Amino acid sequence: MRIRIVDAFTDRPFAGNPAGVVVLDQPEFPADEWMARVAAEVNLSETAFVHPLRDAGADYALRWFTPAVEVALCGHATLATAHVLAVDGTVRFTTRSGVLSATAGEKGWYTLDFPTAPLAPVAPDPELLDVLGATPVSVHHTGPNTDDLLLELYDEAAVRALTPDLRTLAGYEQRGVIVTARADDPDAGYDFVSRFFGAAAGVGEDPVTGSAHTALAPFWSEKLGGRTEMVGYQASARGGLVRVSLRGDRTLLTGQAVTVIDGELLAISPS
Q: What gap in Å lies between CA 119 and CA 141, rounded to an integer?
């Protein structure tokens, strides 16, 4: 059984966000425990498992596992899967977050069609702010597919400077914490910057989080005068750009991907 490691939301190796991708020949998923063990062995933010469908409602079934849990929505591993499948045109995936699609563009670009995350303002949790070492402008909860907290900080420098206590952060119930700010330089090539900490899901700092941009898109659209086309830069050590296009209750995420490892998975599921 082949397994690939793909760097997503980048056009070069060793940047963006790496994801494992396992394309299954069988018409159903193997045991959850086996997929969880493979994801733990791969030890990346997410490993995607995908198998073909005969249902006219979608072309494939797709699931994502971190090293610790299964998640309901993942952008970079979906982009990586589309890249591995060498999508030509549009492919549809049935997932825990409904039917998602990936459409191939020119020069290796793919556009994902995801549900927009609704935002609800919430009161800041003083203990969480201490853990993050942040003073936010505002705090919102995103959901239902993401279940993250989104904190706007005062400037890009504050986002880049954060050094949160990830061990303590792992005890919070939300999937993750998004921190974001407007780009300091209007000529930088992006409109806003973000970072994502997913310690509760087994991911300390995620390099580039596509699903977080389903919340960042509506948040920054309102902040930037109703703009619907924007570019976000996720300022992790690896870094990556995500083009976002807000379409009401859907958000389009566009990026590139590069395969860096193509290998054989020897521990085959018994089911």
A: 6
